[in-house]
Amino acid sequence: MHAFKYHRPSSVNDAAALAKGEAKLLAGGQTLVQTMKLRLASPSDIIDLGTIKDLAGIKSDGKAVSIGAMTRHADVAASADVASRIKALAQLASWIGDRQVRNRGTIGGSLANNDPAADYPAAVLGLGATVHTNKRKIAADDFFKGMYETALAADEIITAVSFPAPKKAAYMKFPQPASRFALVGVFVAQTTGKGNEGVRVAVTGAASHVHRAKPIEDALAKSFTADAAKSVKIPAGHLNSDLHGSAEYRAHLVSVLAARAVAAMG
């Protein structure tokens, strides 16, 4: 690693004030630390968010579940509040990485990093969640911009994510065996609430960043059945192709996994 200055701010405002130039925010460190070890990243300063207690925790009011940015994956997976309101979200968290990753990684870190194959972005987009920062609220449809790119400004810090409780939801994932990232992951939800009604289908792992599968949403809006989802032929032109699977294979998986998600809802 290269030399850097290490900071332990006591508040979000203090952390934001330090987030300048080549400084980097540290959440769970599951990506940043590894890239620093490989000398792919050389931040001038590391700002540890783990010392800000207000950033962790889970709250539920019956209509929505709010998860603090520094809440660990393992805590989301084990939360009775999450499981009772959005079972699919708790299950998704339990499938992230391995036990070590789940006990260190955070939801805020995952979303800010926006890895193309990360699981949480599918839940955020699929449920129409809202990302809260120290400056504003960002709708899921406006948050993810591209590969490792989000709507966050340089000094903007995720503080929490609010998930509206859906009518039904399920997540299905085809994991890459070694990394356990999603080769393809599909989150399907029947959403409720003003301005967020209908069917949402979010896909991770298949393209440069998480996206909604509009053709499947349209098919399920007409007939919410596994057969309707599976019958949709997803174009492969915009999808990833690598040693783990071709674009055509990923396109096929999107429809298959969407159908399995619908079937899992019963």
Q: How would you characterize this protein structure?
A:
With 266 residues, this protein is an alpha+beta fold. It has helices at 12-18, 32-37, 73-78, 80-85, 87-94, 99-102, 107-113, 120-127, 140-143, 214-222, 226-230, 247-265, and strands at residues 5-7, 24-26, 45-48, 58-60, 64-68, 130-133, 137-139, 144-146, 149-150, 158-164, 168-175, 182-191, 198-204, 211-212. Strands 4-5-10-6-7 form a 5-stranded antiparallel beta sheet. Strands 11-12-13-14 form a 4-stranded antiparallel beta sheet, with helices on both faces. A 3-stranded parallel beta sheet has the order 1-3-2, with no helix packed on it. The relative contact order is 0.12.
- Average pLDDT level: 94
Question: What is the CATH C-level name of the largest domain?
Answer: Alpha Beta
> What is the count of helical runs?
12
Radius of gyration: 18 Å
- Write out the strand line-up for the largest beta sheet, numbering strands in chain order: 4-5-10-6-7
According to DSSP, the number of beta strands is: 14
Query: How much helix, percentage-wise, in residues?
Result: 25-40%
Instruction: Please identify the structural class as seen in this structure.
Output: alpha+beta
Reported by name, the CATH topology of the largest domain is Uridine Diphospho-n-acetylenolpyruvylglucosamine Reductase, domain 3
The gross shape turns out to be globular
What string gives the helices and strands in order? Answer: EHEHEEEHHHHHHEEHEEEEEEEHHH
